Amino acid sequence: MDPKQTILSMLRAGRDVVSGSELSRALDVSRVSVWKHVHRLRQVGYEIEATPKGYRLVTDPDIPFAWEFPGREATIHHFQRIESTMEQARGMARSGCPHFTVVVADQQSAGRGRLNRSWHSAAGGLYFTIVLRRRIPPALSPRLNLCTSLVLADTLRRDYDLPAAVKWPNDVLVDERKIAGILAEMEAEADRVSYVNIGVGVNVNNDPPPQEPGAVTLRRLMGKPVSRKQLLAVFLDRLEARLASDSMDMESVIGTWKSLSITIGRQVKIVTLQGETQGRAVDVDSNGSLILELADGSLKTVLYGDCFHV
């Protein structure tokens, strides 16, 4: 275990003060080494008070450092500020990083959404990309996106008592207002997926920009700041469990996603780089594509694009 994990765990255990000798015995290091570890924690934002009787944790920063996720320390990579978690994860995936590697940043300077739109990534939001390695045909990879969005929506419903729903292709909304967006990127070898990177941006304690008037944050909905660390930890555990428990083709994902969808049955406009299509969303097929009923009664399958409820 990382020494920082041990120190924080003991300081959070509910006691007022933990002596340096207790920490020294737990870590099997000298008290000088304990002081050095405490000093490093202070440098990254933990307010730890030193008293004649020992150490006391005063404030705990809501920063998703790797050591805040026991058991995931080797696969979580935290950055204070980078251009894009997706860009970073792509390089790591191509270099052979393990399944369920997570890149998380406090801020992104060049985050992006669908159709290469910029993604505003202000401080206080939760921005991360997960590297998934599943030996599935490329045609089934969109199910990983749908699985991610439904697990996130389910987490918001179960843990925060919010009426979260999913909007095709990968948005999560609360009362018709966007609280999270999801973007996927895939590379394949022959007929098998090499990796799928799932980028997620959640409005937690940040302030959405004026150009996103339909956005909402967890802080606004809950009436208080929300722990990004706790949200990420619970979400990762549930997504990993869901991916491990589903069959390889994840047939149940489509049905569950439909039960949380607010797109099916709505008039929608789909925007792609090639143009626009309008119609009524009537279903999602087994690969996650949206099926539209056009004005003339014909059906059209839409593989990708931005979806706007009309």
What are the main properties of this structure?
5-stranded antiparallel sheet, 310 residues, single chain, BirA Bifunctional Protein, domain 2, Arc Repressor Mutant, subunit A, 3 domains, 8 helices, SH3 type barrels, 14 strands, alpha+beta, 7-stranded mixed sheet
Protein architecture, described:
Helices cover 30% and strands 30% of the residues. By secondary structure, the protein is an alpha+beta fold. The chain folds into three domains: 3-59, Orthogonal Bundle (Arc Repressor Mutant, subunit A), CATH 1.10.10; 66-260, BirA Bifunctional Protein, domain 2, CATH 3.30.930.10; 267-309, SH3 type barrels. Strands 3-4-5-9-8-7-6 form a seven-stranded mixed beta sheet, sandwiched between helices. Helix 2 crosses helix 3, helix 5 (142-160) crosses helix 7 and helix 5 packs across helix 8 (251-260). The longest helix is centred in the middle third of the chain and has 19 residues, at 142-160. The mean pLDDT is 91.
The number of helical elements comes to 8
What percent of residues adopt helix (DSSP H or I)? 25-40%
Low-confidence stretches: none
The name CATH uses for the topology of the largest domain is BirA Bifunctional Protein, domain 2
Q: Determine the CATH superfamily of the largest domain.
A: Bira Bifunctional Protein, Domain 2
Distance between the terminal alpha carbons, to the nearest Å? 52 Å
> How can the largest sheet be summarized?
7 strands, mixed
The SS-based structural class is: alpha+beta
Q: Any idea what the CATH architecture of the largest domain is? A: 2-Layer Sandwich
Tell me the strand percentage band. 25-35%
Query: Which H/E pattern describes the elements?
Result: HHHEEEHEEHEEEEHHHEEEEE
Strand order of the largest sheet: 3-4-5-9-8-7-6
The radius of gyration is: 22 Å
